[in-house]
Amino acid sequence: MSETKADERQPLIELKDIYKIYKMGDEEVRASNGVSFTIYRGEFVAIVGKSGSGKSTLMNIIGALDVPTSGEYYLGGEDVSDMSDDELAEIRNKMIGFIFQQYNLLPKLNLLENVELPLLYAGVPAQERKERALASLERVGLKEKWKNMPSQLSGGQQQRVSIARALAGDPSLILADEPTGALDSKTSREVL
Q1: Residue 185: what pLDDT?
Q2: Sites in the chain below the pLDDT cut of 50
Q3: How far is CA 114 from CA 74, 158, 165, in A?
Q4: DSSP H helices in 15-169
Q5: Comparing C-alpha atoms, which of 171, 173, 145 is closest to residue 160?
Q6: How big, in percent rounded to 5, are the helix, strand and coil portions of the chain?
Q7: Whole-angstrom Cα distance, residue 68 to residue 59?
Q8: How far is the C-alpha of 105 from the C-alpha of 62, rounded, in Å?
Q9: Is the dihedral angle over the CA atoms 68, 70, 74, 79 positive or is it negative?
Q10: Residue range 125-156, pLDDT digits in tens
Q11: What is the C-alpha to C-alpha distance for residues 177 and 173, in angstroms, rounded to an integer?
């Protein structure tokens, strides 16, 4: 068996009996109640459910923004269930691209700088950062606007910058919260 095929068979995400319990006074709220599943590289997976069903909690755990109360979480074969905040930050920076529903673009940075930001945190050299950020903006059709500020863009364009930022680091995992909500149908298909 070739090395590539072996890598494809390794789970990217593996959750085993994940619980997340919040204490609210004397009451316990179970936001995640024994969730288990496996996602392999290359798969597209949607987490759906009614409001209050624990989707955001689960996304925060998968995105290494929060840790489970109990259970095991493996990302790329590495147990991230009990990592420190610094270790989780490193995992997020190296392995995960986030596309937020609210875009989370920094208003005082131009588009290029917004897309470069995670690469800066990752220690990517300046010239390579710029090249990767411009290539990512080109992928979403906004390369020519790289000097613009977020306030000069439509909602759909801001969402595309958010997508470019998530893609620039070439992450193993992209977590997206309604990634095409502000885009027209044609652009949504192109982005996905």
Answers
A1: 64
A2: 1-4, 6
A3: 29, 11, 7
A4: 55-62, 85-95, 111-121, 126-139, 155-168
A5: 145
A6: 40, 25, 35
A7: 11
A8: 22
A9: positive
A10: 999 999 999 999 999 999 999 999 999 999 88
A11: 13
pTM: 0.78
Place of tokens 């998968």: 62
pLDDT the model gives residue 1: 42
Instruction: Using the structure block, give the residue that is written with the tokens 């269930």.
Output: 81
Contact of 179 with 142, CB cutoff 8 Å: no
Mapped onto helix, strand or coil, the DSSP state of residue 178 is coil
d(CA 163, CA 177): 11
Q: How many residues does the chain have?
A: 192
Domains of the chain (ranges plus CATH)? 3-83 (3.40.50.300), 98-191 (3.40.50.300)
